[in-house]
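BUG: 3D viewer hangs when loading the predicted structure for this chain

Environment: internal workstation, default settings.
Expected: structure renders.
Actual: progress bar stalls at 90%.

Input used:
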Amino acid sequence: MEYVVVLAVVVAVFVFWDRPIMVIQFEDGELIKTKGNIPNGFLMGCKDIAHKQPFSGKVKVYKNRFTTKLVFSKSVPSKIKQRIHNVFPYSGGSKKHGRRA
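Structure tokens produced before the viewer hung:
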């Protein structure tokens, strides 16, 4: 019976654990911390955005089978979010499907 409880806890940890593939953290326009394999162009673009319009917050990148998703902390302004989306290199469509007109 205790094995079932331990197994349930292990499964819950795997399901609910926060596992981004990239993390970039800024504080007052300065790059504080990075985690993961961040493309150089994306990192330089984020640094440039933060230098021109200082902000504090985290940018996390998640990837699953079908898509790559950017998640921002609540302290990042919406105009900054859009600018970071614009420099993000993986926002293109899937290569399996054709683009719609």
